[in-house]
């Protein structure tokens, strides 16, 4: 049967369905209309079902399809049978090299020999392979199994599993329709009017006309509107929480930083692994930045690294100004926090610096190996609280409140090391999709070696915390692979269908 291509063909298909159903009830679409495209038969059945002329139900089943290698086996025999026939014809046996030459394919020889040895069709006799005397003929089971599958598209589950494991077949889902007569079944479809016209009223033909009923369950035309990415939704939630808690947003529109602000100002030693090429993206043109305007601050940073200052013994290594001026793609937005704290120190009036709360949400770049939970380009949520009398317990309480507003609870903390914070803590949350705890942030109290070179007073304490934007998003939206948020694996349909507002929020 030729697949329908136009409206007249659709009418023909509707008629053919009715004619076929009048002879046999019920019928299966894949048997009665094997050559008709799925969309065409579905459209015809929906048309008939809307008039109660037929009823139908969708039936799904799996069929086994042969791979090209399996089709070759059906035509020429299994690998083991081909090996056996070659060995049997050679009366004195064959060496491995001779067998490969006779068969003509190394992979067939290797696989076939193993199976033939297992079936005890052949054996090793010195350096030769010979056929067993007791075996006059063989039963090529694999070939027969594949022939059956080729004809019937199925077999015993155990056999299907074994052949699938050998990559000789694949399973394909087949969707068909079981079609039955409906309460208003007829061989001809009565024309249904869709509108009540003035002519029908004038002539009175409306009295005998059949009107098509309204389908109040029909979906409207799909609107190709824009959609907010889940990351943008969670980002908006984070910003709102920060604003509610009295934070000011920091400017983060500078992706390229000098090593001075990205590392040295944060008391990260120049030999730290984070500054290696395998962890950081360095800029090739231009390679370096200009010196900071505040020469005294740069000198303080040099001394606190090289010899120690402000009560610190330092790292005791020759600090390189050239290394500090190398340009990098920023590895964290903490470089922005350092610059903001430096500006805050300038507001020192009579030894008193005003308390401040800063935050930022923007991209950072790290030379990471991409996997289900890591990207080389991602978003960091950065926060800084500068005040007097701050304690580590206060930081933990703040993180519980902050994430609680996001609906992320049961946080766990683990001691950690950061060059610029002491004490430091990693923050974890349980991910149901991955069925494990995942790290969602890092935090700590900024070290005096970082703060005092800026001119900040000793009694001013600073909380610092860096949180991933992607991982809380994964937890809230049940995403197990971070590459589904950014990168080539992003499902645009999932983004478009994602609810504009999460109803699980408190």
Explain the layout of strands and helices:
Layout: H1 7-23, E1 27-28, H2 29-32, H3 38-49, E2 54-66, H4 68-76, H5 79-89, H6 96-103, H7 106-118, E3 122-125, E4 128-131, H8 141-152, H9 157-165, E5 169-181, H10 198-203, H11 230-244, E6 248-249, E7 256-258, H12 259-262, H13 295-306, H14 321-324, E8 327-329, H15 334-345, E9 356-365, E10 377-388, H16 392-405, E11 412-418, E12 421-431, E13 436-446, H17 448-451, E14 460-468, H18 470-477, H19 492-497
Parallel strand pairs: 6-9
Antiparallel strand pairs: 1-5, 2-5, 3-4, 7-8, 9-10, 10-14, 11-12, 12-13, 13-14
Helix pairs in contact: 1-3, 4-8, 5-7, 6-7
Q: What report would you give on this structure?
A:
36% of the residues lie in helices and 21% in strands. Among the domains are: 79-139, Orthogonal Bundle (Arc Repressor Mutant, subunit A), CATH 1.10.10.10; 232-497, BirA Bifunctional Protein, domain 2. It starts with 6 loop residues before the first helix and ends in a 9-residue tail after the last helix. The strands form four sheets. It has a seven-stranded mixed beta sheet, with helices on both faces. The longest helix has 17 residues, at 7-23. Helix 5 (79-89) packs across helix 7 (106-118). Mean pLDDT is 82; it is low at 1-8. By secondary structure, the chain is an alpha+beta fold. It is built from 19 helices and 14 strands. The chain has helices spanning 7-23, 29-32, 38-49, 68-76, 79-89, 96-103, 106-118, 141-152, 157-165, 198-203, 230-244, 259-262, 295-306, 321-324, 334-345, 392-405, 448-451, 470-477, 492-497; strands at 27-28, 54-66, 122-125, 128-131, 169-181, 248-249, 256-258, 327-329, 356-365, 377-388, 412-418, 421-431, 436-446, 460-468.
